[in-house]
Amino acid sequence: MPPPPPRGVITRGTTGINRLRRSDRWLIHDPLVQETLIAAPDPLVVDLGYGASPTTTLELASRLRTVRADIRVVGLEIDPARVVPGRDGVTFARGGFELAGLSPVLVRAFNVLRQYPEEAVSDAWATIASGLAPGGLIVDGTCDELGRRCAWVLLDAAGPLSLTLAWDPFTTDRPSDVAERLPKALIHRNVAGEPVHDLLVAADRAWASAAPLSPFGPRVRWRATLAALDKQGIPVWLYRRRMRDCVLSVPWSVVAPNGF
Question: How far apart are CA 161 and CA 64, in angstroms?
Fold first, then answer.
């Protein structure tokens, strides 16, 4: 039986070398993603909507293979003109939210839902989740053109698990600057009274309070900011490893939109 027809619309296709490096770094170090990839009977990963160039899909494959060498990566694009011959152990095919009939253990969809209306997000998530292998995960994210500011939601088949913001320490003045790159499910909710807005306000205040540490660099200042947020009772993830990026991760319950 042939796979179902692609579901979704063609994206703008904007991409670039190393554009998704921050999310890739997070993926290979996140305990849940690592555990999921290592335990999978078939370590199939789909990069959904990779754009006009397969560069970021090839980068994803290379980086994930540091977690598990036999990972298989398939890049899917709705636009048949963007489907290129496979190389470096990566396959490319035509497909959309239905995942071309594949059952991956991890789906990355970056800068895909950004051009959709907010009300389309839940259906898109559900469609992708219906094709996951048991225990599979989805990363729905957005970033700027150079990948300096990124945000993504991690989901399983039951729904969102967490929100992560990641940015270049040297080109971002304050945490809330990343708000313009929030995933579609949250970007219109950055208004007073919404949980994601409250989180960003708290992060900016803690960042400002850590200003005396500025001479030691933005990474040191950000670690102090995270510690301050933790002391306030906000369940931020405190990373033990040294971080190249500034990263703010919280459970989805912290930022879930009102009425979600």
Answer: 21
Rounded to whole angstroms, the Cα distance separating 58 from 40 reads: 21
CA distance 245 to 149: 10
Q: Does domain 21-252 have CATH number 3.40.50?
A: yes
Q: What is the pLDDT of residues 68-110, one digit of tens each?
A: 999 999 999 999 999 999 999 999 999 999 999 999 999 999 9
For 260, how many CA atoms within 13 A lie in the half-sphere containing its CB?
A: 19
Burial class (CB in 10 A: 0-12, 13-18, 19+), 124: buried
Burial class of 119 by CB neighbour count within 10 A (0 to 12, 13 to 18, 19+): exposed
78 contacts 98 by C-beta, under 8 angstroms: no
Residue 2: is it exposed, middle or buried by C-beta count within 10 angstroms (0-12/13-18/19+)? exposed
Domain ranges across the chain: 21-252
